[in-house]
Amino acid sequence: CEIEHHFGTEKPHYYALSYVWGNAKDTVPIRICTKDVDGKFLEKIVTQVTRNLIVALEHLQQDDEDVVLWIDALSINQQDEVEKGQQIMRMGDIYANA
């Protein structure tokens, strides 16, 4: 997985996915690469995600092209209450633009 940052008027084609359903304690590690706005790799991080997300990613994966997803629990900093509040207010637009 890679995390890309898009700001303001940038509107890449993407799918929105909410994966909070299922057993929140049934998690597996996933490695994510992050890039800056110029596409330069910044770091690799490992985080825990639900098994449901792994299954969804496996089903959505394409062999011949990248699939861009906005995934709530990864796209929103879950430790930052201010950011969570701001993103929740944008959820209608996020899903409408997906």
Structural commentary:
By secondary structure, the protein is α/β, with parallel strands linked by helices. Helix content is 32%, strand content 28%. The chain contains three helices and five strands; from the N terminus they run ββββαβαα. It is globular.
Helix/strand order, N-terminal first: EEEEHEHH
Q: Which ranges are low-confidence, i.e. pLDDT below 50, for 5 or more consecutive residues?
A: none
User: How big is the Rg?
Assistant: 14 Å
Helical content (DSSP H or I, runs of 4+)? 25-40%
| Distance from first to last alpha carbon | 19 Å
The average pLDDT is: 80
Strand order of the largest sheet: 1-3-4
Q: What best-fitting shape do the alpha-carbon axes yield?
A: globular
Structural class: alpha/beta
How many distinct helices?
Answer: 3
What is the β-strand count? 5
For the sheet with most strands, the description reads:
3 strands, mixed
> Strand fraction band?
25-35%
Topology diagram in text:
Blueprint: E1 2-3, E2 15-17, E3 27-35, E4 41-50, H1 51-60, E5 69-71, H2 72-75, H3 81-97
Parallel strand pairs: 1-3, 2-5
Antiparallel strand pairs: 3-4
Pfam families: HET
Domain Heterokaryon incompatibility: 14-98
InterPro entries: HET (IPR010730), HetReg/Transcr_Mod (IPR052895)
Brief overview:
This is Heterokaryon incompatibility domain-containing protein. The chain has helices at 51-60, 72-75, 81-97, and strands at residues 2-3, 15-17, 27-35, 41-50, 69-71.
Characteristics of this structure?
alpha/beta; 3 helices; three-stranded mixed sheet; single chain; two-stranded parallel sheet; 98 residues
